[in-house]
Amino acid sequence: MKLTVLGSGTCVPSLQRNASGYLIKESGHQILVDCGSGTLLQLEKSGNSYKDVDAVFITHSHPDHFADLLPLLHALLYAPNFHREKDFQIFAPHAFRKYYDQAIASILGTPDRFRIVLNEVQQTMNCGPVLVRSIKTVHSADSVAYRFECGGKAIVLTGDADYDQGIIALASGADILITDCSFPDALKVPGHMSAKECGRVAAQAHAKQLILSHLYPADTPDIDRVTEAAEYFNGSIRLAEDLMVIEL
Length: 248
Ligand SMILES: [Zn+2]
Ligand SMILES: [Zn+2]
Known about the structure:
Strand content: 25-35%
Distance between the termini: 5 Å
Bound molecules: zinc ion
Number of strands: 14
Radius of gyration: 17 Å
Largest sheet: 7 strands, mixed
Oligomer: single chain
CATH superfamily: Ribonuclease Z/Hydroxyacylglutathione hydrolase-like
């Protein structure tokens, strides 16, 4: 699997950190995880294309995680000289259907050239060659985390999540664990993990590599969060950066 960080940021506009988005590529299959505002452009900047996305997995119904889904589908429908035929799969928590019906389907209607398939998140799902697991997280009413497995490798993305045992179980032995690291420990808020909590999760899950993401701006340098996480986790820790690529 090949992972590209499209957005390591949050709802706060930033020239360095776009809102949440990640691309996982495996055997020609392309999976988008979250699609916050700006993701469509970030895909282009990363050398990928919205035209090739097979599926998108939404972690929860906060706009920094899904706002570019409408522009993405709009582009797939109306880009000149482009005719998509394969299905476009959306996997999202139950509550997302209401938004989809009211704010996407009501505008775009039903495409006649390809199908948009909205799937409600299950505990286990198949997406091309990738096995996907999910668990509910402590963040919002409908928030979930995802684990993507293929060829004996695993990438886990917590989405927005507070520290809890479910995240640790989902991340067990993960090759890459990407966590919500919204704030350094001194600014911890409920519903998001601090840097130290990210380190605790990675250590307790025996993850191989920890990537700190969903970074809200703070008064202290972002790199200090690596130092905080390292108090608990002695494996590899990196800050997520937009357009960073990790190959497994
Ligand atoms: Zn968020
Ligand atoms: Zn959120």
